[in-house]
Amino acid sequence: MVRSKNFFMKFYLALIIAFLYIPIAVLVVLSFNDSRSRVVWGGFTLEWYKTLFHNSDVVAALQNTLTIGFGSALIATVIGVLAAVGIDAMKKRSYSLTLGVGNIPMLNADIVTGIALMLWFSRFTNLGYVSILLAHVTFNIPYVILSVLPKLQQMDMSVYEAARDLGASSVKAFTRVILPNIFPAVVSGFFMAVTMSMDDFVVTYFTKGAGINTLSTMIYGELKRGIKPEMYALSTLIFAVVLIVLLLVNYMPRIRQKQIQRKLQNRKAAS
């Protein structure tokens, strides 16, 4: 009975992993396919990787995606951290009301948010790079708030009050006391905002102007004509970068811990 249960659990886990990663594996294989066909293998090639960075449209879309993603995440992180500090200081009723209103952009349908922002921006300015950036800042802020707020609630605010009593200004007490304590949550909120921004399509599609594209809108525009193999290569590179970052984040603390243990052992041996 125990063996059959373990087998079922392993099979279920393997099935989930297969559903998640088989499409990515197909994408990686297609990026090395010498044929433009998605069903015929034409041999191994690196041609699509070579031509990738010579395609000005793809390079421009990648630059827009990265600058909008990191730029909007940085702005949203600053605003979100300050908003989280303000919300945490509110009374219970105001806290619940403000947090509920702040959660609406996350629960709202993307198409509603995209159309609303399109109408708002087209009323006051031309749609383009700035409108996309501001739209991404708008839907990223709640994710930063939800990431930082729990960490603020766990923090002992008497330390901040003690710093204020000792003569520190509110800004200095915030940067020296509060920010170091909530910094892991700030970093988490920042990268979550980057991920949500780079992953977005609907809001970007409605708030972008003519002549500007991100990777998501560019791929959508190529569906009718057929996706270029260069996009397979670019997607593979993005996946590889994300995988390397995840491996470094997970294994660097272990490596550092082993280095510290070796140093301690060497000191003990020397003494």
- Report low-confidence residues grouped into runs of 5 or more: none
- How would a textbook summarize the main sheet? none
Q: Element order, helices and strands?
A: HHHHHHHHHHH
SS elements, strand count: 0
CATH class (first level) name of the domain at 56-231: Mainly Alpha
Could you say what the CATH architecture of the domain at 56-231 is?
Answer: Orthogonal Bundle
Distance between the termini: 56 Å
What does this structure look like?
The chain is mainly α and 271 residues long. The chain has helices spanning 2-31, 47-52, 56-88, 92-107, 110-124, 129-154, 158-165, 170-199, 202-207, 215-222, 229-270. α1 (2-31) packs across α11 and α3 crosses α8 (170-199). The chain is globular, with a radius of gyration of 24 Å. The mean pLDDT is 84.
Which structural traits does this protein have?
ABC transporter permease, mainly alpha, single chain, 81% helix, 0% strand, globular, transport, 271 residues, MetI-like fold, 11 helices
